[in-house]
Write a structure and sequence with these properties.
The complex is a heterodimer. Chain A is built from five helices and six strands. In chain A, strand 1 (19-20) and strand 2 (23-24) form a beta hairpin. In chain A, helix 1 crosses helix 3. The radius of gyration of chain A is 20 Å and the shape is elongated. Chain A starts with a helix and ends with a helix. Chain A has helices at 5-17, 26-39, 44-62, 74-84, 119-132, and strands at 19-20, 23-24, 63-68, 93-98, 105-110, 113-118. Chain B is mainly alpha-helical. Chain B has one domain (2-165). Chain B is 92% helix and 0% strand. Chain B has helices at 2-9, 14-23, 27-162, 165-185. Classes of the chains: A alpha+beta, B mainly alpha. The interface between A and B is medium-sized, with 31 and 30 residues.
């Protein structure tokens, strides 16, 4: 058995009902999942799988991920957020990530939108240019 | 027959008879001997000579026929020999003609095969040249990629080693400025 249209539909209904004020209420989602488990449905696993896909997609699209090669100080973090502005809309949360392979600079990612001003990216561009010529 | 009796009745002349007697010849015996000879000659002529001659004639006729047949056979043999020679000659001519035609066909085929082979060789050569060029290009591209990768890796390592905290901060400032410019221009999808 695999995820069917019916499971996706149920997951969609659960997902839509979990929203309050345009933001998903994760405590409500937890409650729904509990009641679903209590029902002991045979297709519970597939509904949850479908729901998990939706949550992952939502988090990916609404989480702001800021990566840099060194640990950012609180001051620096605030500065970055102030530059970005309007941080309330990142309902998935804001993550600061340390990635040494970036060498230097900053990488800001939200869903499929990426602003990459790192040395690693510049090197990648250099590599592509060298390969072309 | 009458002549024999007449001869027997004729009395020998006295002068002749006397001379015969003087020589010891008995005229009567002589006549009877003659008559016997004649009878014998007649019998031989009648029963032996004619039969023998008939057989001889028959034999001669047979021999003539055999000779004639022999001639006929010889002639037929000669004719068949000539026909055989003619057939052999024709067969030889036909065989020679066939051989010539086959040789001509073989030559033509060989020529065609040569042309085909030459074309094929040219094609193979062109393909090999093309493949060699492609391979060369591929090698060049691979080499270029490897060199680019080495350069970039080296640059990355060197940059990472030589970057000080100040440089890192400066890079962060620069990146932030770029982000701010993007956002203010409305090009960024983040804000």
């Amino acid at each position: 058995m695999k995820v069917k249209l019916q499971h996706r539909r149920i997951a969609r209904i659960i997902w839509q009902n979990s929203f309050s004020g345009g933001i998903p209420d994760f405590s409500a989602i937890r409650q729904i999942i509990k009641s679903l488990r209590n029902e002991k449905r045979r297709d519970e696993e597939f509904i949850l799988e479908s729901l998990l896909e939706r949550i992952s997609l939502y988090l990916r699209e609404n989480t702001l991920r800021i990566s840099s090669s060194n640990e950012l100080s609180e001051e620096r973090q605030k500065q970055i957020l102030s530059v970005i502005g309007n941080i309330e809309k990142f309902t998935g949360g804001i993550e600061f990530d340390k990635n040494e392979s970036l060498i230097g600079g900053l990488r800001i990612e939200k869903g499929y939108d990426i602003e990459d001003y790192t040395v690693a990216r510049q090197l990648e561009i250099l590599k592509k240019t060298l390969m072309k010529n | 027959m009458n002549n024999i009796f007449l001869l027997a009745q004729i009395a020998p002349p006295s002068g002749v008879g006397e001379s015969f007697s003087k020589f010891g010849v008995n005229i009567i015996d002589l006549i009877s001997q003659g008559i016997c000879f004649l009878i014998l000659a007649y019998v031989l002529n009648r029963f032996v000579f004619k039969v023998v001659m008939k057989i001889v004639d028959q034999r001669r006729k047979d021999a003539d026929e055999a000779s004639l047949n022999n001639d006929k056979i010889r002639k037929a043999l000669k004719e068949s020999e000539e026909a055989r020679s003619e057939i052999i000659r024709k067969a030889r001519e036909h065989a020679e003609k066939l051989i010539m035609e086959t040789k001509a066909d073989v030559d033509l085929l060989r020529e065609q095969e040569m042309i085909k082979t030459e074309k094929l060789a040219v094609q193979i050569l062109a393909k090999a040249r093309e493949e060699s060029l492609l391979h060369h290009e591929k090698l060049k591209s691979e080499l270029r990629n490897e060199i680019a990768e080495i350069i970039v890796n080296l640059t990355g390592i060197l940059t990472e080693k030589n970057l000080k905290n100040q440089d890192r901060e400066r890079l962060l400032d620069s990146a932030l400025n770029a982000v701010a410019a993007e956002i203010s221009a409305g090009k960024s999808g983040i804000s």
